[in-house]
Design goal:
With 230 residues, the chain is mainly alpha-helical. It is built from 12 helices and 3 strands; from the N terminus they run H-H-H-H-H-H-H-H-H-H-H-E-E-E-H. The mean pLDDT is 91.
């Protein structure tokens, strides 16, 4: 495990409260084997970091892309703060090398677990925010999450969900919008599986299954995009 001073040097931030920085890397599994630890897990920092990241992203989009609609902001924000994007940023910084994990989590390759890395990245954002203020947290996120990623995401419209892309294509080519229909709803109430189809007029273009109508519609839209070669 690398010393956190190495990370401070890498990101150009010297923490006033070193314990706060350390706490950002305490995975809950570590505490199962170190019950006398003075630290709590990084989960509360992760919770705060998620909110700070959401605000940073919203301000950034509002200022840099003033002509976008509210729906565009929502789609872009969802794309940039998803687990995969955060994990990639964490991997770039090699945050896994600083994690405090249980022996079991360590043996299970926890240092490369994308969910753990994404959560740690958010916890680190919160630690920077608490120790250094909003501007430093904003600078950190812009440098290590947005830079080289956000502009490309927007330019290629990769932030759009399959449903959004399909609707744009339908409106441009056919002057209509996709029609979604629930074909089946199966299973117990707490674990119901929905089957949804998407239609162009009366022609079925794709189907999808999911634990919610929204998830099933998204999968149906993915299949429809393939059917029309997009």
């Amino acid at each position: 495990m690398k010393p956190l001073s190495q990370l401070e040097k890498q990101i150009g931030i010297v923490f006033k409260n070193k314990k706060l920085l350390q706490n950002a890397f305490i995975h809950r599994s570590y505490l199962n084997e170190n019950k006398d630890s003075a630290f709590t897990s990084n989960e509360k920092l992760e919770f705060l970091g998620d909110s700070v990241l959401s605000l940073i992203t919203s301000v950034f989009l509002y200022e840099k892309y003033p002509k976008f609609e509210e729906g565009d902001y929502t789609e872009i924000k969802s794309a940039i703060v998803k687990t995969g994007s955060l994990a990639e940023a964490a991997e770039q910084l090699q945050l896994g090398n600083y994690l405090y994990l249980s022996k079991g989590e360590e043996l299970g390759d926890g240092r490369r677990n994308r969910n753990i890395l994404a959560d740690t990245f958010e916890a680190l954002i919160a630690a920077i925010f608490l120790d250094q203020g909003f501007q430093k947290a904003n600078q950190f996120v812009t440098t290590y999450l947005f830079k080289g990623v956000l502009d490309q995401l927007i330019e290629k419209e990769d932030y759009l969900s399959a449903k959004s892309r399909l609707q744009e294509i339908f409106q441009a080519k056919y002057k209509t919008i996709p029609q979604y229909k629930v074909l089946a709803s199966e299973g117990p109430e707490h674990k119901r599986i929905f089957t949804v189809a998407v239609f162009l007029h009366k022609k079925k273009l794709g189907t999808g299954k999911g634990l919610s109508k929204k998830e099933a519609e998204e999968k149906a839209a993915v299949h429809a995009l393939r059917a029309i070669n997009f």
